[in-house]
């Protein structure tokens, strides 16, 4: 599976089950980083911007 991240985009290329798995991992990672505990939800754009830095 390949993952391409640009400033405002995330592209996942692969089989359907690989993409679903990767999306679940990304969701789990954002939850573990304490975002839900802070009461704020990051958008995909904010996630990509922080990942690019």
Please describe what this structure looks like:
InterPro entries: MciZ (IPR025177). Pfam families: MciZ. With 53 residues, the protein is an alpha+beta fold. It has one domain. It contains 3 helices and 2 strands, in the order E-E-H-H-H. The protein has helices at 16-32, 35-38, 44-52, and strands spanning 2-5, 10-13. A two-stranded antiparallel sheet has the order 1-2. A hairpin with a 4-residue loop joins strand 1 and strand 2 (10-13). The longest helix has 17 residues, at 16-32.
Strand content: 15-25%
Mean pLDDT, to the nearest integer, reads 78
Please tell me how large the radius of gyration is. Answer: 12 Å
Shape: flat
Number of strands: 2
Helix percent reads 55-70%
Low-pLDDT runs of 5+ residues are 35-39
Largest sheet: 2 strands, antiparallel
InterPro entries: MciZ
Pfam families: MciZ
Summarize the SSE layout with pairings:
Blueprint: E1 2-5, E2 10-13, H1 16-32, H2 35-38, H3 44-52
Antiparallel strand pairs: 1-2
What are its keywords?
single chain, about 55 residues, alpha+beta, about 15% strand, flat, MciZ
Question: Briefly, what is this?
Answer:
The protein has 53 residues and is of the alpha+beta class. Helix content is 57%, strand content 15%.
